[in-house]
Fold:
Amino acid sequence: MLEDFLSIHDLSPYQFSKILDFIQQIKDKPWRFRNKLKNKILAMIFQKSSLRTRVTFEVGMLQLGGEAIYLSPSDIQLGTRETPYDVGKNLERWVDGIIIRTFSHQIAVDLAQVCHIPVINGLTDLLHPCQAMADFFTLKEKLRGPANLKLAYIGDGNNVCHSLIFAAAKAGSKMRVATPPGYEPNPEILKQAEQDGRETGFSFYITNDPYEAVQEADAVYTDVWASMGQEQEKEKRTKIFAPYQVNRALMTKAKKDALFMHCLPAHRGEEVTDEVIDSAQSVVFDQAENRLPFQKAIMLSLLEKKAKNG
Ligand code: CP
Ligand code: NVA
Structure:
């Protein structure tokens, strides 16, 4: 039974596919779930900026009949004013669940360990699982389904890339990643994904050549070159990542009508050109739309039941 949602690695392939089905049910008939979280309260700890994650968790909670409390970096000053341990031990006395967006992934893990209420990872430096779940639902909606699908990820081997790799492993997708040398995904994540994907048909390939990665791809995904917390590296990264821009020339090497994907926010003219992100192949706003039914699916799965160890 799922108690927290910190990583897609923690789901079985069966749970992964059941959640995708659940998103579909919620998206098709949202009114059915209108009061399912009545009187439940979600605390939202954000140590980094957010549009999509914050709004979709807050709107999701309201539409399910509950309430959400936004805690900005200056409100609680996690780790400075108070330790994550003490913050968790306070919050669990008042609220029914926590979503946390923070820097070190260990903070989210520690919080989940100390709290008797469910903790959801709203992005860490290592992972962005809510994003990848919505993305794989989008792939399922738009294409024949994620199994055997060829997904190319171009750019930084970052949090979004890591969660997409875990999702691909659970779904049995074929994934190719092209990064500049030195910016490859974390080897530990690759090792875990390989184990996860042993029986699903998952395959994985890393290259430094974006043209090689997009060959025959059903979908081409990219993300910003400098993530939140890496702002001081922006200038250096802009030069290193320039050959990894997703532009028309690169898209034409993928399958005809391949989808273009991006978690957003996008830096237009950097990792993607206007021409590609605004093209008919782009599904970036569908991905954003699908964040809402996924957040509802995960909150319903975790918060409808009793507290952890309760
Ligand atoms: N994609 C995503 O998580 O967007 P935000 O950073 O705006 O939440
Ligand atoms: N990799 C980006 C994703 C933002 C949703 C970041 O961490 O800033």
